[in-house]
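// run 5 | inverse folding | seed 20
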């Protein structure tokens, strides 16, 4: 499909957002197709690292035909991305992945939950939910975001689209603890949860949602390596058998990254 071809994208701006976390806007035709929870593959130019790096889409600006990527530097590939300046071109592949099923929040109280570098993809999610028209509009959009410390990147932007609740590991802002602690302490009500973050956080959300009868959709994007089905580094166990391969496995990058929590064997 044409939307998944390699493309050149022009850097519009890049800056440091928090320690080790960069904020990059790219001009690309992908913007017209991009949905919250999807990602792109970004190619390093270094020949030793030919596979793209999967990076989630933080925000979409259709008018400027631009996407925003907020990424953490984790190795030589992402370190190279920090060097790009406005006017430079990067090679990207996309749009990739399935994205969050926003329609599941129609008429419901929806909570977007993010932890660490799982926070960025929830920004466009909160924005689209808050801007949705009847009949798919949720009755309430809340955001519960977990951070290590007072460096609560993007939290002010979440407050434009949702009621924001914060948890920090060191207790410097909001609830001391994790996102579930913040849900309880700040009495956040939910019918549906869209979440992205590290596996321990997603496991805790699945358990919490199950106990409370809340529908949860989890993005496992932190578990991806290449993002394009080439490395098999992203297999996860599922509760249902794949009817092609007859195994209880899914590839996060090609079958996800978003899954119904009930379908995941975590
Ligand atoms: Fe490489 Fe899925 S991340 S195959």
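// decoded
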């Amino acid at each position: 499909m044409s939307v998944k071809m390699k493309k050149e994208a022009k850097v519009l701006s890049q800056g440091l957002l928090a320690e080790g976390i960069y904020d990059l806007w790219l001009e690309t035709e992908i913007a017209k197709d991009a949905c919250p929870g999807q990602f792109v593959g970004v190619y390093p130019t270094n020949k030793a690292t030919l596979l793209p790096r999967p990076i989630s889409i933080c925000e979409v600006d259709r008018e400027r035909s631009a996407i925003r990527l907020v990424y953490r530097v984790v190795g030589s590939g992402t370190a190279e991305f920090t060097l790009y300046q406005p006017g430079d071109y990067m090679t990207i592949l996309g749009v990739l992945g399935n994205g969050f099923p926003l329609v599941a929040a129609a008429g419901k109280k929806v909570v977007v939950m993010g932890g660490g570098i799982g926070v960025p993809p929830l920004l466009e999610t909160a924005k689209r939910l808050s801007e949705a028209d009847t009949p798919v509009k949720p009755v309430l959009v809340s955001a519960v975001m977990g951070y290590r410390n007072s460096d609560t990147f993007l939290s002010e932007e979440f407050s434009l689209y949702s009621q924001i609740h914060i948890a920090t590991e060191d207790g410097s802002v909001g609830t001391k603890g994790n996102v579930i602690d913040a849900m309880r302490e700040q009495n956040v009500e939910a019918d549906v949860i869209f979440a992205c973050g590290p596996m321990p956080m997603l496991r805790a959300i699945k358990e919490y949602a199950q106990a409370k009868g809340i529908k949860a959709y989890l993005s496992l994007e932190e578990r991806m390596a290449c993002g394009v089905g080439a490395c098999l580094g992203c297999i996860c166990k599922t509760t249902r058998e794949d009817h092609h391969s007859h195994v209880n496995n899914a590839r996060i990058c090609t079958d996800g990254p978003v899954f119904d929590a009930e379908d995941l064997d975590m």
